């Protein structure tokens, strides 16, 4: 009912990173893409199948060195229900390989509708006497703009099923300040959102001191990351924006606590497209992803020491 | 590139309502549910197929009197990719029947990821030389917490393809005020969000004076609805919370302009489950839905006069 499973995995692998599985079709190497498109035609179904195979090979290459994967729902919805099926299958495969799985859906709604999202992504659905986990991820990113009504349904499932959520607080993009930095009685909105995360998570704090309610805080705002680490002692941070978006390891270090815990840093394109940057044989795309993941781990752990 | 198509339809039918297709499996009448579960077993697939049939019959019963449907994505994701396939098929069927289709996904993200959501829900995706519209709705609800970076990708597609978006401003739920009512220099956050909607939509204003960027404003806050109508003259409102959540037609009237336009009011459960409330034969569920839709139309238009 906290993020203990994820943090244990981070500690075991001494690696505070999550690999973002945001697979555009043009990230998939030509040879792999071609084999599926030749078989099924230039269809959404073929694209989705190619992406599943690609994800599998990336997961195989990372599962013993990276604790978690994060699936960006948008890149699956792009291929319609075929893509969503690939999302389901990828979640199942990654969990089978022992990885902690975060669905990055930034879902938000209220009451019964939020219960439906919760059942879909973290919980289960009963059809007659049969129970199914439609997606079955370990954690979900959510947007808290609608307040407690949108978060409560998630909390019950977090407790019952040992799941977690990450609430958007200070996002990594240039315009994140338009609303998030607005001052209310001298306190920026993102810090207010963070304060609510502490409240929402209060009765789910686990062995490492972190609750089941985490926060998204961008690597591109190192000052705010450091400020929020001090302000929100029980809130685990999911940190996007490393690398491609310009967030460096030195700045990210402020997001960790004195035990080198408290944050998990995402990298998507740099890992998925490492073979393009490396210029290696595209058949070695998974090897290149692994090399980049190791480089990133070493980069981050040169600034922090875990456990 | 505005909401002209939707408003023309509202004017034609003299009905400012949208029917929410939020179909839980237990809304589907026993006889229909049973026929699909008997055929395919107690599976997510059978549930999704039953819901599609149910949606079709509701759409058939409403399409000549109600201008639009709104599909709540959560109730489709509940059934995994099978449910998402039903969402796709329902969107296609409703458009075929001439209805304007809003996907209520409250999606939000930034940059390339928001482009992926946009392509999925409102735009198209190319696989080789073939182009597909994965979901192909007319409009999408979105959450603006991430600022302009999360909205810009939508705007280009709204312009190119004559689509629209509704941004969450003041939601209908009890805790909506936790963040949305916070005052920044005396102005509540929901009004700030509304001001941005005016800016985002500025170059897409159509024949009726409304842009392609609408706002979600709950029926349960009639004062704010009236206030925002005056403040945001080019922003069309999507108004949830009528009926079940307690919003009455008299209060909603403040959300309309002097021509009886400027808002579209949603009802989901009251229409979908009208047969239960009416206590009629469940085989007449679609007839009951139509009767409730007519009652709602008459209730709203007793306070406003369209066109």
3D structure, described in words:
Two copies of one chain form a homodimer. The first copy, chain A, is an alpha/beta fold and 307 residues long. Chain A has one domain (4-301): Alpha-Beta Barrel (TIM Barrel), CATH 3.20.20. Chain A has 14 helices and twelve strands. An eight-stranded parallel beta barrel of chain A has the order 1-2-3-6-7-10-11-12, surrounded by eight helices. In chain A, strand 11, helix 11 and strand 12 (263-267) form a beta-alpha-beta unit. In chain A, helix 6 (111-121) packs parallel to helix 7 (152-161). The longest helix of chain A is centred in the N-terminal third of the chain and has 19 residues, at 44-62. The two termini of chain A are 21 Å apart. The mean pLDDT of chain A is 96. At the A-B interface, helix 3, helix 4, helix 5, helix 6 and helix 8 of A face helix 3, helix 4, helix 5, helix 6 and helix 8 of B.
């Amino acid at each position: 009912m906290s993020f203990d499973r994820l943090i244990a995995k981070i500690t075991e692998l001494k690696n505070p990173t999550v690999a973002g599985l945001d697979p555009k079709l043009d990230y998939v190497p030509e040879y792999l893409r071609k084999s599926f498109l030749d078989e099924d035609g230039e269809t959404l179904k073929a694209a989705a199948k190619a992406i599943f195979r690609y994800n599998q090979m990336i997961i195989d290459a990372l599962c013993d060195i990276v604790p978690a994967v994060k699936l960006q729902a948008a890149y699956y919805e792009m291929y319609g229900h075929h893509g969503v099926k690939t999302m389901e299958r990828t979640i199942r495969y990654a969990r089978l390989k022992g990885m902690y799985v975060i669905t990055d859906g930034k879902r938000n709604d209220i009451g019964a509708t939020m219960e439906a999202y919760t059942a879909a992504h973290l919980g289960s659905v009963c059809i007659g006497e049969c129970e199914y986990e439609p997606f079955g991820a370990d954690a979900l990113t959510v947007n808290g703009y609608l307040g407690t009504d949108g978060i409560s349904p998630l909390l019950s499932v977090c407790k019952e099923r040992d799941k977690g959520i990450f609430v958007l607080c200070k996002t990594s993009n240039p315009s994140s300040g338009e609303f998030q930095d607005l001052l209310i009685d001298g306190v920026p909105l993102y810090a207010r959102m963070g304060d609510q995360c502490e409240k929402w998570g209060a009765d789910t704090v686990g062995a490492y001191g972190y609750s089941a309610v985490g926060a998204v805080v961008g690597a591109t705002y190192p000052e705010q990351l450091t400020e929020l680490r001090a302000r929100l002692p029980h809130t685990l941070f999911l940190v996007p924006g490393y690398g491609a978006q310009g967030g460096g390891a030195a700045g990210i270090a402020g997001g960790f606590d004195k035990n080198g815990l408290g944050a998990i840093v995402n990298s998507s394109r740099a890992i998925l497209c490492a073979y393009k940057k490396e210029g290696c044989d595209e058949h070695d795309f998974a090897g290149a992803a692994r090399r980049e993941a190791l480089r990133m781990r070493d980069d981050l752990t040169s600034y922090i020491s875990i456990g």
